[in-house]
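Below is our example:
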Amino acid sequence: MWVVKLGGSLLEAGHLDAWLDWLRCRAAASEPLLVVPGGGPWADAVRALQPVLGASDLTAHRQALLAMQQYGWLLLQRLPAAQAWQAAATRPEAGLSVWLPEATHAGSLDCPADWRTSSDALALELALELDARGLLCVKSVSPMAGADAADCFDEVCLGLAARCVMPVGWFGPHEQALAEAWLAGAALPASHRLGSP
């Protein structure tokens, strides 16, 4: 199984459709794919409202998890072949699934329940829990464009990636062919790898 994290920035930058097309083509493959949604504009709203409403970091973290769920419901509408998946106690079945995180999803020592933990870190932690073959992190910026991982990923995610042996790849908005080649066994360029190869 592979885990695919779709960043909320793809939706806001207008780059989501190409990746949804890629996922639709992959949906019939025998190997399951689990899609993890980012927070997108819903998480931005949580962050903006936190100081206005006086919400604690834990409350904001739980609201941000629900922001991911809102993006997830949109992805399920756009990916009719996909199934909703919530229970971390079971592995997703063959085909395409979308994770709908619950507000009660517990933080951990590696992923604290506050703003230090982004949806990227949660996607990596989930991929490790499920013993996935790897994680594809899809963002609206590509390392080929000179983007720096430290500016695009939170420290929790980068720390987890540095310590794990599972491969973690970073893909830009138009790099579906590179992702397809990686899933087929091709080596990923060093610029696109997070942590160990």
User: Anything to note?
Assistant: The beta strands are 2-6, 33-37, 83-85, 96-99, 134-138, 168-171, 193-194. The CA atoms of residues 111 and 125 lie 8 Å apart. The chain has one domain: 2-194. The chain has eight helices and seven strands.
